[in-house]
């Protein structure tokens, strides 16, 4: 006998009949009593046909209104998650509102973290620049000690011995700064280790000079080797700067420092020749090589420096002193090798002032040579300091800008989260209210108006 479905009232979740489980609720047409008809489900039939144990159907339960509701087994939890069409409305609404917010928050977090890392990178660059600033005083003090070593035969050893302390202090400061600077590249670390080993040889270099037992330009060559190692360490640090706005002026700065070193080296070599009365073959070759390196350094500076710095260099490193020094250098380079080598000047004293060479030969006034050389170096150093200030200022600006962007993006991210949460709450409450009204209306129609019709 065919059963007529019962119109059910009450909670919709309690009126659902488990037809999928093979159960149908109805009213017997003759007696008017409630009845339950069980039909074997497809799954149960297939299992019986295959010889397996039948699946026990869920036990039906009776609602307050008297209708029978059977709760089917939901199965594994991932089946429920995969059937997103069956999700509750509240869950669907939460997914629609929350998922875009989560994606936006994730992207914002990654962007903020990137800016923070960039700011940390510029902080490391600032430390590298501070380390480079510690190299310049050391090279300047070493150059001065080399110049005094070249004048021991004429000026005595007092000033030379006093210069040892400034050099040692600058070396100690550089070592302390390097040890406190993290993130040095392998090349920079290797050059720093070489520099420390070279600085450790200073006592052995100073001893024969102080005793006036050095052989010609041996001390000059030894000091030059240490200074070259320091400049190589400086160059390795420039490579670490990375950012073109920093590496380009830093490279130009390195070229100017190289030009300064050549001026100081030429000063020391000519002083040795003045003390002896002539230049030997090795010194003449050293002087010629130094002039070539100076020209190369200036050319490299002109190639990488900004136009305003090129113009500044041309206008600054000029004048009477620069021209006079160049004339004296050309004069020293054109003198015959070995001319006017008085034997009395070969013997040196350990204290006091030595006798000057006789007339003839390399007759460059020592005071004039030192004055013009110092003046030229001071002019180059003026440009060098300006570029160094620019490098430091650019690094500070980049670090502050990156930190500001990270802070701003963090604030925007927080505001976005709060705004999205507020909008989601308002829209969600509105939609849930509308759905509630729709649900209550539908239940009222199904429970009252349709049966009455």
Q: What does the secondary structure layout of this molecule look like, with pairings?
A:
Layout: E1 4-5, H1 12-15, E2 23-27, E3 34-38, H2 42-49, E4 61-62, E5 68-69, H3 77-82, H4 89-150, H5 152-155, H6 158-179, H7 186-199, H8 202-210, H9 218-239, H10 244-276, H11 281-304, H12 307-316, H13 320-334, H14 366-452
Antiparallel strand pairs: 1-2, 2-3, 4-5
Give a brief description.
By secondary structure, this protein is mainly alpha-helical. It contains 14 helices and 5 strands. The protein has 2 domains: 1-73, no CATH class; 121-350 and 361-407.
Give structural notes.
The protein is mainly alpha-helical. It has two domains: 1-73, no CATH class; 121-350 and 361-407. The chain contains 14 helices and five strands. A three-stranded antiparallel β-sheet has the order 1-2-3, with no helix packed on it. A two-stranded antiparallel sheet has the order 4-5. Strand 2 and strand 3 form a beta hairpin.
Properties at a glance:
453 residues; mainly alpha; 2 domains; three-stranded antiparallel sheet; two-stranded antiparallel ribbon; 14 helices
The number of strands is 5
How far apart lie the N and C ends?
A: 25 Å
What is the N-to-C order of secondary-structure elements (H for helix, E for strand)? Answer: EHEEHEEHHHHHHHHHHHH
Q: In percent, how helical is the residue content?
A: over 70%
Principal-axis shape equals: rod-shaped
Q: State mean pLDDT (0 to 100 scale).
A: 78
Side by side, the strands of the main sheet go 1-2-3
Query: How many helices?
Result: 14
Computed Rg: 45 Å
Low-confidence stretches: 1-32, 34-55, 339-359
Indicate the structural class. mainly alpha
What can be said about the biggest beta sheet? 3 strands, antiparallel
């Amino acid at each position: 006998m065919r059963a007529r479905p019962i119109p059910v009232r009450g909670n919709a979740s309690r009126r659902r009949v488990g037809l999928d489980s093979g159960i149908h609720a109805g009213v017997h047409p003759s007696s008017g009593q409630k009845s339950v008809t069980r039909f074997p489900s497809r799954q149960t039939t297939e299992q019986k046909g295959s010889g397996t144990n039948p699946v026990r159907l869920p036990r039906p339960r009776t609602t307050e209104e008297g209708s029978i509701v059977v709760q089917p087994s939901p199965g594994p939890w991932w089946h429920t998650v995969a059937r997103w069409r069956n999700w509750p409305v509240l869950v669907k609404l939460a997914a629609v509102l929350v998922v875009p917010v989560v994606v936006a928050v994730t992207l914002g977090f990654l962007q903020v973290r990137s800016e923070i890392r960039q700011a940390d990178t510029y902080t490391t660059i600032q430390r590298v620049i501070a380390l480079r600033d510690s190299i310049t005083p050391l090279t300047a003090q070493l150059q001065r000690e080399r110049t005094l070593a070249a004048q021991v035969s004429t000026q005595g050893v007092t000033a030379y011995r006093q210069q040892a302390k400034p050099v040692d202090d600058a070396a100690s400061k550089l070592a302390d700064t390097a040890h406190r600077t993290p993130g040095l590249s392998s090349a920079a670390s290797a050059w720093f280790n070489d520099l420390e080993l070279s600085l450790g040889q200073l006592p052995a270099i100073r001893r024969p000079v102080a005793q006036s037992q050095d052989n010609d330009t041996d001390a000059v060559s030894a000091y030059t080797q240490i200074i070259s190692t320091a400049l190589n360490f400086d160059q390795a640090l420039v490579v670490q700067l990375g950012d073109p706005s920093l590496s380009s002026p830093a490279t130009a700065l390195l070229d100017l420092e190289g030009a300064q070193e050549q001026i100081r080296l030429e000063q020391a070599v000519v002083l040795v020749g003045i003390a002896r009365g002539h230049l030997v073959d090795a010194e003449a070759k050293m002087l010629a090589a130094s002039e070539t390196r100076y020209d190369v350094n200036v050319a490299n500076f002109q190639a990488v420096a900004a136009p305003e710095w090129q113009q500044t260099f041309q206008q600054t490193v000029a004048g009477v002193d620069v021209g006079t020094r160049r004339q004296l250098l050309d004069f020293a380079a054109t003198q015959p090798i070995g001319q006017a080598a008085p034997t009395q000047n070969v013997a040196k004293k350990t204290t006091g002032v030595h006798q000057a060479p006789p007339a003839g030969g390399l007759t460059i006034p020592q005071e004039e040579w030192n004055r013009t050389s110092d003046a030229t170096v001071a002019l180059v150093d003026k440009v060098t300091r300006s570029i160094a200030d620019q490098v430091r200022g650019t690094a500070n600006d980049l670090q502050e800008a990156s930190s500001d962007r990270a802070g701003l993006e963090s604030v925007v991210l927080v505001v976005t989260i709060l705004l999205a949460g507020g909008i989601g709450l308002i829209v969600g409450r509105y939609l849930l209210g509308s759905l509630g009204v729709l649900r209550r209306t539908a239940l009222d129609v199904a429970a009252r108006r349709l049966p009455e019709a």
